[in-house]
Amino acid sequence: MRTYLLRRILQIIPVFLLILFILFFINEKAPGGPTSTMMDPRMTAEQKAILAERLDPSLPVYQKFFNWIGQAFQGSLGYSIRLKRPVTEVLGDFIGPTFLLGISSLILSMLIGIPVGIISATRQRSLIDTSTTIFSLIGISMPTFFFGLLLIKFFAVDLRWFPIFGMQNMLLRKEPWLTRALDIAWHTVLPAVVLGLSSTASFMRYTRSSMLEVIRQDYIRTARAKGLREKVVIYRHALRNSIIPIITLLGFWVPSLLSGAVMTETVFGYPGLGKISVDAVNTRDYPVILGVNAMLAILTLLGTLLADILYAVADPRIKYE
Q1: In this structure, are residues 136 and 204 in contact, taking their beta carbons and an 8 Å threshold?
Q2: Rounded distance, CA 211 to CA 119, Å?
Q3: What is the signed CA dihedral for 69, 72, 78, 80, rounded to 10 degrees?
Q4: N or C: which end of the chain has fewer CB within 10 A?
Q5: Can you spell out the DSSP letters for 126-186?
Q6: Using CB atoms within 10 A of its CB, is residue 33 exposed (0-12), middle (13-18) or buried (19+)?
Q7: What is the pLDDT along the chain (321 residues), one digit of tens a residue?
Q8: Distance, CA of 183 to chain centre
Q9: Residue 79 per-residue DSSP state
Q10: What CA–CA distance (Å, rounded) separates 272 from 96?
Q11: If we measure between CA atoms, which residue out of 211, 161, 208, 209 comes closest to residue 187?
């Protein structure tokens, strides 16, 4: 396993650099170009000199890319045009809300999707199975922004059970930490439900399909013939062998902590990386766009690596040489 992990990490590095180069090339060739908006009059002379050197139009793209990579290795991803701050500080300030929203929606999706998928598989063609199938199809098909607007209309505007937008009530900033924590949780409920809708539906479908395949195997019939309780057969034997597709889904879900939150955070005015990504695109804030995309790329690569590791944990028969 250790050798496999080392080899995979060494494979990730050139792939990551290639992705960064493609992202950098697209930014350079975007209409208007980053040089037209990056010069801020309030920059110091030294900052302008560094930026001018890096963005010199006479330099080839690969040279600009190497300059940017060199700055990145020193902990600098550039300077945000709109926010007038280093990109690393911007990402550090906004990654927390996005991480909280993503983890909340993931936990919600797994707690609902996996058990419901198991029940649907063990009661195939029943009313419960039909209902969950319809729900999963609706969840996968419904646009995020539309579902978010529906929840805001009914639960925030009409019933006034939840706040309409934002992450916290600014009037509670001086209240005890427990009050502020509960307020943040209350603001996160609707965005987490919206972000977790498609994931919940996916977990249902993957779990159901995998469980249906496993419970028809000979060893499951043998376990039942031995007189084992149905719960033991399903949850101890069948579930562990059907969890591989779920792990695959989980691995690809890691980068969606960022990408999937773009529309949700925009609809709810949630102050996370998704919202500032949309704002950066609208204002041509190229350093922020590049920084967010670089983070998304590394999350995608780490998600696939995490899925491979979890394969071996879930199924001891999988060995990595």
Answers
A1: yes
A2: 10
A3: 120
A4: C
A5: SHHHHHHHHHHHHHHHS-HHHHHHHHIIIIIIIS--S-SSSSS-GGGTTS-HHHHHHHHHH
A6: middle
A7: 677 677 777 888 888 888 888 888 887 776 655 555 555 566 677 766 666 665 555 667 777 788 778 877 777 777 787 777 888 888 888 888 888 888 888 888 888 888 888 888 888 888 888 888 888 888 878 888 888 888 888 888 888 888 887 777 777 777 787 888 888 888 888 888 888 887 788 888 888 888 888 888 888 888 888 888 888 888 777 877 777 777 777 777 767 666 667 788 888 888 888 888 888 888 778 888 888 888 888 888 887 777 777 776 666 666 555
A8: 23
A9: B
A10: 7
A11: 161
268 in Cβ contact with 190 (< 8 Å): yes
User: Which phi and psi (to 5°) does residue 64 adopt?
Assistant: -60, -40
Q: What's the rounded Cα separation, in Å, for the pair 211 and 85?
A: 50
Cβ within 8 Å of residue 60, ≥6 positions away: none
SS (H, E, C) 84-139: CCEHHHHHHHHHHHHHHHHHHHHHHHHHHHHHHHHHHHHCCCCHHHHHHHHHHHHH
Return the residue matching tokens 């309409």: 164
Which of 235, 261, 250, 241 lies closest to 203 in space, CA to CA? 250
b/e map of 158-197 (b: 16 or more CB within 10 Å)?
eeeebbeeebbeeeeeeeeeeeeeebbeebbbbbbbbbbb
CA distance 139 to 200: 8
Which residue has 């002379």 as its token pair? Answer: 45
d(CA 129, CA 22) in angstroms, rounded, equals: 45
